[in-house]
């Protein structure tokens, strides 16, 4: 496996959207109480005294929706100012982005992923649960503002759902032609919501690439980032197309990350709940950073076994205790 140097940090489990693939309709979500969140001080202590000494230098802030976290700009500044931080990025739905995009950039955030699953406001509403065209326009405006501010690369995350938005694949891919935008098509993952679709709820990346290839052609490319996307581009395009194929093409051997939940649970594998560590409780029980660091170090050693355990490509429909929104993606 790759060196694990990338930590995805969920800042909050709440979201102002209710996307059907992330927060399934009718699902009773048990939100974390505010006092159960890692505080900024606790999070920074874990980074400085546990993760960075173990070689973690790349961090992504996620949610829920991370911009709902009080004081998020200040927290970005604190993490960006750590001398060992080589890369700091964020994934957001973009709804609250436009007014603070410049502040985030000035605080040290340089890369941003914005979730936008449709260019059609009605389809957007069906996926996200947000009413009215104004909601779609706020996200679109957030994307435009982030681009003008200077976020580079600016990535657009698209979860492709059969019969819902897969008819927009070519339109979304076309966004990369004239602008230095990077669209990433993501196969739907049935984590915490395996009953969402009666049939297979995802489309293989190779099928999407074939559609694009027939329209424009497609060549291999690359873009700055820490993720597992296979990157291509339309010949002559300014931006790129990424394909994250966790269902159709196992990439466990390329994994370089762990996930830290908003309430302090460290998760070594997105698709397997084994081996999780409760770092917040350890901190609050005055367990020394050295002992916590040793626990994480041991978990790193067995991460390859956890990654591959019970991992059958394209058939990961087991029962999970948390939905995607509660994990942080």
Model description:
With about 325 residues, this protein is of the alpha/beta class. It is about 30% helix and about 15% strand. It contains 11 helices and 12 strands. It has a 12-stranded mixed sheet. Helix 1 (about 40-50) crosses helix 10 (about 290-310), helix 2 (about 70-80) packs parallel to helix 3 and helix 4 crosses helix 5 (about 135-150).
Low-pLDDT regions:
312-317
- How many beta strands in the DSSP annotation? 12
Individual helix count:
11
One letter per element, helices H and strands E, the order comes to: EHEHEHEHHEHHEHEEEEEEHHH
Largest sheet: 12 strands, mixed
List its salient traits.
globular; 329 residues; 11 helices; 17% strand; 12-stranded mixed sheet; 12 strands
Give a brief rundown of this model.
With 329 residues, the protein is α/β, with parallel strands linked by helices.
Please render the helix and strand layout as text.
Elements: E1 6-10, H1 40-51, E2 58-62, H2 72-80, E3 87-92, H3 101-107, E4 111-115, H4 121-128, H5 133-149, E5 154-160, H6 169-173, H7 175-178, E6 181-187, H8 205-216, E7 219-220, E8 230-233, E9 240-244, E10 257-260, E11 265-267, E12 277-278, H9 279-284, H10 289-308, H11 324-327
